Amino acid sequence: MPLCNHKNMSGNAKLLHENLWESDPELMDLIRKEKKRQVHGLEMIASENFTSLSVLQCLGSCLHNKYSEGLPGQRYYGGNEFIDEIELLAQKRALEAYRLNPEEWGCNVQPYSGSPANFAVYTGLIEPHGRIMGLDLPDGGHLTHGFMTATKKISATSIFFESMPYKVDPVTGLIDYDKLEESAKNFKPKIIIAGISCYSRCLDYKRFRQIADANGAFLFADMAHISGLVAAGVIPSPFEYADVVSTTTHKSLRGPRAGVIFFRKGVRSVKPNGDKVMYDLEAKINQAVFPGIQGGPHNHAIAGIATCMLQARTPEFKDYQTQIIRNAQALCKGLLERGYSISTGGTDVHLVLVDLRPAGITGARAEYVLEEISIACNKNTVPGDKSALNPSGIRLGTPALTTRGLVESDMTHVVDFIDRGLKLSKEITAVSGPKLVDFKRVLHEDPTLNAKVQALKEEVQTYSAKFPMPGYEEF
Ligand SMILES: Cc1ncc(COP(=O)(O)O)c(C=O)c1O
Fold this sequence. Notes:
Elements (H helix, E strand, L loop, with lengths): L10 H7 L2 H4 L1 H16 L1 E2 L9 H7 L10 E2 L2 E2 L5 H17 L7 E4 L5 H12 L5 E5 L20 H4 L2 E5 L10 H11 L3 E5 L9 H10 L3 E5 L4 H6 L11 E5 L10 E6 L2 E4 L5 E3 L2 H13 L5 H13 L3 H23 L3 E2 L8 E5 L7 H10 L2 E2 L1 E3 L12 E5 L1 H5 L4 H25 L3 H10 L1 H19 L10
Parallel strand pairs: 1-15, 5-6, 5-7, 7-8, 8-9
Antiparallel strand pairs: 2-3, 4-10, 9-10, 11-12, 13-14, 14-17, 16-17
Helix pairs in contact: 4-12, 5-12, 6-11, 8-9, 13-16, 14-16, 14-17, 16-17, 16-18, 17-18
The protein binds pyridoxal-5'-phosphate (PLP).
């Protein structure tokens, strides 16, 4: 609620107290359009979600105003009495959400998002040009796991550290742990990263740990995509095996757009003579986040983390996460029944990677036509793809749809919409020929095909709008 509601405000008072819809109708109009797009579409981008009203209220709160460089109790600015309490609460709840003993684990809730969190992990743990190994981006890893191409170091994590990727088996689509073991023996990484952006199976953390141990490397789990599922205990947790775990908080966890780093504390190992070797990660990680990489923490986001971690401990949250997986499996089953090919043959998590090569459709066309009918997803490389620039698959995720209350029976409709969209893309290609520009032109300009696209879009929009959306009514 605004504090002031004077109709006759002027000057600075007007700047300060007017509602956005009065002070900036042009921007408000765009925000309303985006809200409408979200409500009327099927959101299937695997990394997206619709956060709760409570989290949005944190993000729009007075906490945004405060500078608080440093950690609770050790700030560079005054006035942090309550900010300290909020950050400590976020830390405590983050540990509780993952059932961690505070004697064994600590966490830093200040990372602005997943990418700076990961950069802070490398900065804290190893020297510049230290060696890291992560799943290759085209194989389902993330940019920040050291991505580079043959001609260019793309991610800063490959510019400032030396990276060597591991891969999935091109036939099964599963991580080739034997090859990882062999490469690690040669490359001698200081950090092995267990984390995915597009991989539909649970990770074998035990095997990762063995390979890390054999090379004296840290095991770093980036659970950004799956952190909601891990908190709910519906898939294996990396905490049993990892030294450090990072996460974003806005994907399956359904919190604010932010990041968290968890680090081990206490005894790391015991020498043959009985001497204890202690972990020394806490100061290294904390200093890498601030002052190493970041400045003032985003206190509004940290409050959002606190409240989403509270939600993550509820039975309702566990039901939600269970339903995410059920929906992904129902989606997978439906697509298989319609003859589509699924990478790895199925899913254990929140996402499905559809291999469109047998269907004769490119990922780019599929993504484009689905977007035109109000289904949001992204094109993605599939195992064995020759070119990362022209991927042959699409990645579909269920966290956002599940938030809106869709269940397995609704997936039948979703599959039907996707199937009809993809069939339309084949019809359009038959007219347009192979070039994507021609495909887009024909989709919009061919009256018969465009009418079909518009009719399907209307069906999808009417269907989507039936499901509730958390957050503010209008924006
Ligand atoms: C596994 C993984 N790590 C890190 C990130 C980076 O997160 P952000 O986009 O918040 O920087 C992502 C984002 O997609 C991710 O999938």
